[in-house]
């Protein structure tokens, strides 16, 4: 199973930006779906953004226009660029790859002034 290592995150300010990275232990075929999920305290883990097997990007409404998911196949890395951060974005963020159902360990993002 592919191992995923995450970096980025931490404390950000409202209106600020942050980038999360997810590096895979091996090559991720371009047809693999990659995604970012998040889980806030007391809530279930939910999808934030994904790149489908066909290369389409999908976003949930509450991050549309603020977050951008991308991938660098040469670096086996998936990114989540987060702009215009809001306090509601505070959560643990996880990267995910399918097939294989590999999850990253999660990284805390806290948005607070």
Helix segment tally: 0
The residue-averaged pLDDT reads: 96
Secondary structural class? mainly beta
Shape: globular
The share of residues in helices is: under 10%
Uncertain segments: none
Task: Write up this protein.
By secondary structure, this protein is mostly beta strands. It is built from no helices and 11 strands. It has strands at residues 4-7, 10-12, 18-24, 33-39, 46-51, 57-59, 67-72, 77-82, 91-98, 102-103, 107-111. The strands form 2 sheets. Strands 2, 4, 5, 6, 9, 10 and 11 form a 7-stranded mixed sheet that branches. β4 (33-39) and β5 (46-51) form a beta hairpin. The chain is globular. The termini are far apart. The relative contact order is 0.34. The mean pLDDT is 96.
Summarize the structure.
With 113 residues, the chain is mainly beta.
Blueprint of the fold:
Layout: E1 4-7, E2 10-12, E3 18-24, E4 33-39, E5 46-51, E6 57-59, E7 67-72, E8 77-82, E9 91-98, E10 102-103, E11 107-111
Parallel strand pairs: 2-11
Antiparallel strand pairs: 1-3, 3-8, 4-5, 4-9, 5-6, 7-8, 9-10, 9-11
Summary tags:
7-stranded mixed β-sheet
């Amino acid at each position: 199973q592919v191992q995923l290592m995450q970096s980025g995150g931490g404390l950000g300010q409202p209106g600020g930006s942050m980038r999360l990275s997810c590096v895979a232990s091996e090559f991720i075929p371009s047809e693999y779906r990659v995604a970012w999920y998040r889980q806030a305290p007391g809530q279930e883990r939910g999808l934030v953004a994904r790149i489908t097997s066909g290369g389409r990007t999908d976003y949930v409404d509450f991050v549309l226009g603020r977050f951008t998911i991308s991938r660098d196949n040469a670096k086996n890395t998936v990114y989540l660029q987060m702009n215009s951060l809001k306090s509601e974005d505070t959560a643990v963020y996880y990267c995910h790859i399918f097939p294989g159902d590999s999850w990253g360990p999660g990284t805390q993002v806290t948005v607070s002034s």
